[in-house]
Specification:
binds 1,3-dihydroxyacetonephosphate, globular, TIM Barrel, about 260 residues, 12 helices, alpha/beta
Length: about 260
């Protein structure tokens, strides 16, 4: 069975004390959650202390929110995937729409980041998703297919098997407008069938596909009914211990 994953993307929020308190409360509240993996994607400077904290709970893991497309060297301000690996970071979010839109990341740059991550044993959480105008023009499937093709489909079967995919329609991120169950399930099914055509049905069946975009305790349960929706990548609601724990609970009831 595919892994069920609830990931919190803290983005550029929280002080050190707030981040540690949030992690401690989440660890305390979610002790027996076998079969759900909880991923906390924190700013770089909180990663190391978080890794120490989650040792007590095998269901928790830590993600970075980005890494460099370069191996190492004179790239001031960048963080290499090898550095993440060296402190035990398991996952890295790559291709988030905020990185694409605000920092000019292209599909080919993201492909290089995916390579750096996998070379170092850090598993990518690869984000894809269309803009509102692209959905309104009915090209959302083409947009997502191109993102997959240009950033992931150079990988071998063994490599793609190590990736998690997050479908995050850009119009649903931070807007309070979530994709309907039908819109999310339809795109997840499309992503899985696209992977199946390129690789194989068995590979496609093994890859967890998360939904992201205004996920809350109120809409999580319905989304998790989708056969191809294996969890969530949560932004705003992941900053509130109760909301995030309730989203984890919503997934636990489906297992
Ligand atoms: P929101 O849940 O705040 O819409 O953010 C989603 C997101 O971007 C997660 O990566």
């Amino acid at each position: 069975m595919r892994k069920k994953i609830i990931a919190g993307n803290w983005k550029m929020n929280l002080t050190f004390a707030e981040a540690m308190a949030l992690a401690d409360n989440l660890l305390d509240e979610n002790k027996n959650i076998d079969d759900v993996e909880v991923v906390l994607a924190s700013p770089f400077i909180f990663l190391h202390p978080l890794i120490n904290r989650i040792q007590s709970n095998p269901n928790f893991s830590i993600a970075a929110q980005n890494c460099s497309d370069k191996i190492k060297g004179a790239f001031t301000g960048e963080i290499a995937a090898s550095m993440l690996a060296s402190i035990g970071v398991e996952h890295v979010i790559l291709g988030h729409s905020e990185r694409r839109q605000l920092y000019g990341e292209t599909n080919s740059m993201i492909a290089a980041k995916v390579d750096r991550a996998l070379e170092n044993g850090v598993f990518p959480i690869f984000c894809c998703g269309e803009l509102l105008a692209e959905r309104n023009n009915n090209i959302h499937f083409n947009v997502v297919k191109k993102q997959l093709e240009e950033s992931l489909f150079h990988l071998t079967s063994n490599q793609i098997d190590e990736c998690i995919i997050a479908y995050e329609p850009v119009w649903a991120i931070g807007t309070g407008v979530t994709a309907s169950f039908e819109q999310a399930q339809e795109m997840h099914e499309f992503i899985r069938s696209t992977i199946s055509s390129k690789y194989s049905k068995s590979i496609a069946e093994e890859i967890s596909i998360l939904y992201g975009g205004s996920v809350t305790p109120a809409n999580a349960s319905e989304l998790f009914d989708g056969d191809d929706i294996d969890g969530a990548l949560v932004g705003g609601a992941s900053l509130k211990e109760k909301d995030f724990s309730d989203i984890i609970k919503a997934m636990l009831t489906k297992i």
